[in-house]
C-alpha cells in the first residue's frame, strides 16, 4: 500500500523530509479495525515527531494522528464497527500513523464519522476534539451538560485546532468564553466560533481581562505554550483550575497556586491508548457524541485548508504550514491516488 514517511528525521526543508513509500498492508487482530484512509489532518505533534524521532534501519516512520475513512476489515474482538462504516479517529502515538492507504486502529478510540461532514471536514476534528473535551470535562471537571453554566473560561491560543473546537465545546456547556488571538484574521475566526470576548495574548492579558470587568476567571486552558503561566496564575480564581497541553522546561512558580488552592492539570490525549487504560473506550463515546452535535448543527468542523492528493509533496507543505505557527483551524490532506 502507499504511505508517506521518513527514514531520516529533521527539518522540513529537505526533499527527503517526507517521502512516498510502498509498505505492506496490515491485518486486523484483537480489537483493531483496518481503515481505508480517506483524509488526514496534520497537527503540531506530527512536526515534533518528524523533527526528533529517529527511524530504525529498514523501518521508515509513518506519521499521522488524525484520520477519517471507511472500515475495510475488523479484528475478531471488535464489536463496535462493521465493514463499510464511516469513522474518524486520532489513533495511538505508539503505532504506525494514518499517512497510509490503510491503518490499524483500536476501535475503542474510534468514533462514528459525522454524516453531515465530508471526509476532509471530519479528519480535521479527532485529535483536537479529544484534547479539548478531555481538558475541559475530564481534567477541569466542567459539566458537559450545563451544570457550570455562566462560569468563565479563558482559552489561551484559541485560534489553533484545539482552541477552535474548544470554544464550541465550552459554549455548548454554557460557559462564558474569553478567547485569545493575536492577529485580525484569527480574531474574526474565534468570534465566528462563538467566543464572547477576544483578547490578545501578545499583550497584557491581565489588564485586558480586568477591562472586561473580570477580576478572576473560573477556568483557564493554555492551548499554546507555558510562557503564559504567570498570567494564568494571576487570573485564575481561588480554587479554580488551569489545564495545559504544553510540556515545558520553563520555571513554573507555584506559590500563587498554593495560596489560591488552585489546581493544575495536564492533558495528553494519547494517554488512554498509550497505557491501555480501562476507560479508553471513553474516546469512542466522546467522538460519537461530538459527531451527533455536529449533525444536529450545534457544532461545526474546524477545517481551514485542504490539500490533495495525499502524497509526500503535499504532506511536506502541510507540515510547513503548521510550523509557521500562524495556521488557524486545521490543515487537511485528502485522497490517495
Automatic annotation (TrEMBL):
InterPro entries: ADH-like_N, ADH_Zn_typ-1, ER, GroES-like_sf, NAD(P)-bd_dom_sf, Quin_OxRdtase/zeta-crystal_CS, Zinc-ADH_QOR/CCCR. Keywords: Cytoplasm, Metal-binding, NADP, Oxidoreductase, RNA-binding, Zinc. The keyword Glycosyltransferase does not apply. Gene3D superfamilies: Medium-chain alcohol dehydrogenases, catalytic domain, NAD(P)-binding Rossmann-like Domain. Coiled coil: none annotated. SUPFAM superfamilies: GroES-like (SSF50129), NAD(P)-binding Rossmann-fold domains (SSF51735). Homotetramer. Belongs to the zinc-containing alcohol dehydrogenase family. Quinone oxidoreductase subfamily. This is Zinc-type alcohol dehydrogenase-like protein.
